[in-house]
Each structure stands twice: as structure tokens, then as C-alpha cells.
Amino acid sequence: MSNDTPHSAESALDQLEEQQQLFVLEYMKDLNGTSAAIRANYSEKTARQQASRLLSNVNIQNAIAELKAERNERLNIDADYVIKTIVETIERCSQAKQVYDKSGELVMTETPDGKLAPAYKYDATNVLKGAELLGRHLSMFTDKVDNTSSDGSMKPVFNIVGVSPDDTSASGDSTE
Question: CB of 51 within 8 A of CB of 43?
Fold first, then answer.
């Protein structure tokens, strides 16, 4: 591969065959495996399968991870940047904007007390999407399953309807 590729001297990319290197570099453009395979001169007919095979290759995964890390460092992209951008977008989308009709006239709406007032709108869809992304980052929406029983063990607990947990006659331990 040529020396103008954006990677270090002893990189994971250098350990790949030339066509695999081309696939990785093409993949980094849009993160689309099938398109990258086609652009890297793999057959269009089998590009999807080739992309799947290539993306499961540990050496290719390492090269992609290395290039992504270099790109993130070069562009100063980290979790703080992403979160800051989401918060800024939420704040921008939360701002009320006056509504105008096609002719540029301010749209008026009737208030509950019968008066006319300018109509306002805001971008609720993107506010909620931003809030969802932040919530996912904070693990607020993670379904958690507690598999421990009351004594802290992992023993299964069975609750039989109509039978008290203290009732030993249902367990077959009866001494009669």
C-alpha cells in the first residue's frame, strides 16, 4: 500500500493483504461493508458475503479500530464532544419558533380565552431523540434482570400459586 495512507508505520493495516487494505480504507469512508467490498474490487454478486467474511476477520477488525482511533484523535471526537453536541442540539430544538404561512405572514392561533396570539412550534422529535441518546448513554433505559434469589444465591425460585413457601407438604417431604 502507498505511504500516503493515514496510518502509523507498524500498523494493523500493514499486516493485511493489499485487497484487504483497500477494503478497510474503503470501509472507513462510509462504514458500509458491501459498498466497500465493491469499491475494493470484490465481485458485486458476492460483495455482501465478502464484506461479512472480511469484517469478521480479527486482523481487519484491528485495522479498522486503529484507523477509527486515529480519526477520532485527529478530529478531537470523544464522548464529551458527542454528549456536548447532543445537549446543544436538544437546546436548539427546544427553542420555540414563530410559525409563518407561505406568504410570510405570521400565523395566529386562538388561545383558550378567545384571544389571538402568534403560533409557535418546536422540534419535539429531535428533542426526544437527543434525550433518548443521552438516556441510553447514562444506561437509564437498560432492562436489568436480577437472577439472584433472596438469599443472594443463584438458586432458582419457584412460586406455585396457592402454596405457601413454608408448606412442606407440597414438596414431597411429608413424613406421613
Answer: no
